[in-house]
Amino acid sequence: MVSISKKDLFKAKLTNSFINLENQLQEYFIGSNDSLNFTQDDTRNYFITLTKIYLYQRKYDEAKQFIDTILQTKVELLRNEENHEVAFILENLAFTTYLETYYPFFQDTTQAKKLYLKLLAIQKQLHGQNSLKIVQTLIVIGVISSQQDAPEFLAQALDICDSTLTDNEIELAYFLWQIGSILLDKCYFFGPESSELEYVEVVLTESLEICQKCLPESHPLYLSCMINLAQVKHHLTHYESAEKLLRKSLTEYEKKFYPFHPQIFNLRHNLIVNLQMQSKYEELVEFKRIQDNYREYHQKRIKGIVFNDPDVDTTLYPLEDVTADQDEEQEFDFDAEYNNMIEQQRKYLSQENYYVSNSLENSAYENLRKSELFLLTEVETLFLRALQVKSKILGHNHDEVLDLLANLAYVYELQQDQDSYELCSQEIARLTMTK
After folding, report:
1. Cα 70 from Cα 49, distance rounded (Å)
2. Which helix (H) or strand (E) holds 57?
3. Phi and psi dihedrals of 424, rounded to 5?
4. Which residue, 334, 326, 347, 420, is CA-closest to 379?
5. What is the pLDDT of residues 267-318, one digit of tens each?
6. Burial class (CB in 10 A: 0-12, 13-18, 19+), 16
7. pTM
8. How far apart are CA 305 and CA 347, in angstroms?
9. Neighbours of 232 (CB within 10 A)
């Protein structure tokens, strides 16, 4: 009998030692393939855990093959696709197929969208037209869809939320935040159209009002909602309202993270732009001074020379080796070279050096900015990989390693994964005591 605790999985994440857990779970599923019952909590949890283990290791082909095998076996046994177990397995296959498109370059999501549309049809038969399962799937399809098609799916999701979530305010806030943030992201592709942005402003304002009633100001959902609403108000030229939200968000982030944290830098940059638009030049002086310090610090991080440990060899990762020939212009056939680009990027990101860890970390921040809850698995994976690399180079209790752990805790809190959040907090406390 398999027995894997949350603590076992968390330890494997930090050390990148998944082999034992992977083998145990593979044996469990191979040994009981025909008798698997996905209405049982243990089976569902083990299935999700093994899928995540594959994803943490970027084993997308293995993950899809594993899930597809289980799916085909279940469909043959039940002789019916419109089944709760089939829907659960199909959802994981669609999710894995979608996440694969994010690494290392954003790729075609056509196959993932087909799977999600198939899942949507099954869910409507199983749960009815107004289920929250439908809302989640519609939001994912909205993200995958083009800027022209996305609003239709997101509007459907919003209608279900308005009619269904009258008694569950926190969940309503989460869905409104996702819908508003995704629409905001889509708006960037076709410019700040006032009608679109005014609609986004209404959605995010409603989400923020719920957060103000139900959550502390330091909660990730509260902060993310404020930041995105500030962006909307800035584009609508409501500069004073945007400034208040940016200042409040910046204050909360400065309490949580170190002064040169990328999200703090971005917030400070947005606030500088906002103050410039209001001609508040005297207030810009201090913010610009801090930003200049950040740029100097960031360049040192890239060159690998910001370490507390003097024994670290700072010549291991010279910037010139990484950025050589980056400014050379050369024409190439994108379609012919695409697979080669993918392979080169994967090879590069598999290296264990400081510059690569920063690249992974920055990718995590970019995905986190998109405010899509289902992308948090990708964010978690990127932070974990950066954490594993930096732990080897800097030591487990280095400030930058502790800050990465704080980022992970932030992600777990946003996912409402209380167990992982507490384990991460305990690890931070343990390492802090050893400094």
Report:
1. 15
2. none
3. -65, -40
4. 420
5. 888 999 999 999 998 888 888 888 777 777 666 655 544 433 333 333 333 3
6. middle
7. 0.82
8. 24
9. 28
